[in-house]
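Section 3.1: Structural characterization of target chains.
Under the original work plan, the team committed to producing a structural model for every single-chain target entering the pipeline before any wet-lab resources were allocated. The record below documents one such target. The sequence was received from the expression subgroup and is listed exactly as submitted; it comprises 117 residues.
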Amino acid sequence: MEEKSKNPQKKLSSLSELGQLLTDSERKQVLPEVTRHAHDGRNKTVRVSIDSKRRKGKSVTLIEVLQHNPATMAEIARILKQHCGAGGTVKGGKIEVQGDQRNRVVEKLREMNYVVR
């Protein structure tokens, strides 16, 4: 009788299973830590409005009265754009999110501990 050889290799169905095969020291070397820190508004007041002037009739949601450095403003803009699924930018100390996204922006800003007016 021929003996069936067992295959010691296991097929992995996801990358998380691959990470489980590694030891802690190997995991730290191969898989870098993803640092996603939540932004805390510390009860600062912001103003959310909608504007369509000088935009050929297209509406833009404006987030004003944020007093942060440009890197923090860009981080907040990225978070809001991802939450709304829309484009946008930071111009002149204001964050612009394309479209009428007031409800979503207000929801996310309150989640980030801002007081919205």
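The domain at 45-116 is CATH 3.30.780.10 (Translation Initiation Factor Eif1).
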